[in-house]
Amino acid sequence: MSVLVAISGRDNEKLNKKMQELLPNTLVEQWPDCKNTNEVDFVLAWKAPESMWLQLPNLRAVSSFGAGVDSIDLTLLAENVEVVRIVDDQLAEDMAEYVLTHVLAQKLRLKEYDIKQTQQIWKPKRGHSYKHVGILGFGELGKACAQKFINNGFKVSAWAKSHKNAANVDFYYGEQGLSKLLPEVDYLVCLLPLTHATTGIINHSLLAKLPAHAVLINVARGQHVVEQDLLNALNNGSLRGATLDVFEQEPLAQDHPYWLNPKITVTPHCAALSDINSVVEQVVNNIERLYKGVALNNRIDRTKGY
């Protein structure tokens, strides 16, 4: 039995070392430097190459390196393979602080003042009075964000796939619910899981239902947004602004029109970064549970994709 780390786009040396220290009797390897793929029964993955999965005939469980599992093509995994994700309380708090900060920045016109500073323009204005936040998706991150907004005097509504309960939050469901919610909100925060149904959901049709003073904040996945539709909405004045932390391709290309658009705030996928110690602790715990034959923590529903 062995554990395989297949995470692209980062240096995994410290991660691998920590895992090996906590699993002294288990071989921890880094893809593609795997001595015997037949021995691999657990994979820690993020954007692993699709060709890898077919080389792991005895795979029993996969853990995403993050809160979402959209970086893993679930159709390539055998039906008996369990898939789990990372749940980090600090991650939720960091996300809540990020979205509150950027809603307040939009409310208080800080983007306008950044531009005016470069032009040496002194022109004070009152902040916007808008106070209604709509949240798309109401998992653990959505709950934390909603509470943070409520604590700071905002009205909060949320759109969810299944029935939810939370104090001081108005819920909407289905296509009709979304169509009713959108015209009412001042700030739209996307926290949806990325699935076939939610890919491209922030498109011309959705954006056209928002008030012209509304602001989009996307902290979920870049693939939720049809980029040209968003740019069109901003450029023609049917949307006031956008804060984007996630993109279809990351890092964002230097020639991408988002960079220089005065109505867009770009951040480098930093809204909520997983703490390496918390990740290792959860992954190692699930590996130990797998070997003991105990149910894994934070399992996803593979039929839903989250």
Describe how the helices and strands are arranged.
Layout: E1 2-7, H1 13-22, E2 27-30, E3 40-46, H2 50-53, E4 61-64, E5 82-84, H3 89-107, H4 110-119, E6 132-136, H5 140-151, E7 155-160, E8 169-173, H6 174-181, E9 187-190, H7 204-208, E10 215-218, H8 227-235, E11 241-244, E12 264-266, H9 276-292
Parallel strand pairs: 1-2, 1-3, 3-4, 4-5, 6-7, 6-9, 7-8, 9-10, 10-11, 11-12
Helix pairs in contact: 1-9, 3-5
In short:
With 306 residues, the protein is an alpha/beta fold. The protein has helices at residues 13-22, 50-53, 89-107, 110-119, 140-151, 174-181, 204-208, 227-235, 276-292, and strands at residues 2-7, 27-30, 40-46, 61-64, 82-84, 132-136, 155-160, 169-173, 187-190, 215-218, 241-244, 264-266. The model has no long low-confidence stretch (mean pLDDT 96).
Describe the structure in your own words:
This protein is an alpha/beta fold and 306 residues long. It has 2 domains: 2-88 and 274-292, Rossmann fold; 89-266, NAD(P)-binding Rossmann-like Domain (Rossmann fold, 3-Layer(aba) Sandwich), CATH 3.40.50. Helix content is 31%, strand content 18%. It has helices spanning 13-22, 50-53, 89-107, 110-119, 140-151, 174-181, 204-208, 227-235, 276-292; strands at residues 2-7, 27-30, 40-46, 61-64, 82-84, 132-136, 155-160, 169-173, 187-190, 215-218, 241-244, 264-266. The strands form 2 sheets. It has a 7-stranded parallel β-sheet with strand order 8-7-6-9-10-11-12. It is elongated, with a radius of gyration of 21 Å. 36% of the residues are buried.
Largest sheet: 7 strands, parallel
Distance between the termini: 27 Å
| Main β-sheet, spatial strand arrangement | 8-7-6-9-10-11-12
CATH architecture label name of the largest domain: 3-Layer(aba) Sandwich
Helix segment tally: 9
What is the CATH C level class of the largest domain, in words? Alpha Beta
**In percent terms, what proportion of residues is strand?**
15-25%
Total count of domains = 2
Average pLDDT: 96
SS class: alpha/beta
